[in-house]
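Internal tracking record. Fields below are filled automatically when a chain is submitted to the structure queue. Please do not edit lines marked as system-generated. If the sequence contains nonstandard residues, flag them in the REMARKS field before resubmitting.
Queue: standard
Priority: normal
Entity type: single polypeptide chain
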Amino acid sequence: MTHDRAKDIKLKNMRPWEKTAMVVKRHWIILVMLFLYFFFWIWLTVGVYIFFNGALSHLIVIVIWMIRSIFLYIQWLDHELDMYVVTNNRIIGVEQVSFLNRKVSECNLWQVQEVGSHTKWLLANLLNYGTVKIQTAWNATNFVMWYSPQPLENSRSILNIVDAYRDAHWSKSGKV
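SYSTEM-GENERATED OUTPUT FOLLOWS
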């Protein structure tokens, strides 16, 4: 999701004059990976049915599917809630580290030093996903989003927003 639906995102701590310029979420390839996990577990349960025969196999399969469905949901949730929100004043990174463990980082646009993108392997180049990294002036606040859609275009858009912010604020203050 980029500029089209960026206006739909409103955060609780946004200032009244702050507007959402861009939102970057994970690529849909994550759903394909989770779907492949799902089929791997179907294959595993068929193997359990073949290896164990009887009432014990039913119990083992039910326990495996209960545990696996919880972990599959948690993995989906971890990837679904990760996003960058770029406003006209700052960048907010929301990362779901694990279940009930969320990390929210933010920095002002004037702190951004470098925005880069990286695609690796054939599938990433064909499906246009990769890594977007934002380096800030503070060592502790670096934003890295893996499996980002259109990494080159998104990193360029973020850099354009940062440049527009700097141009607007430096032209008002008289700095060159």
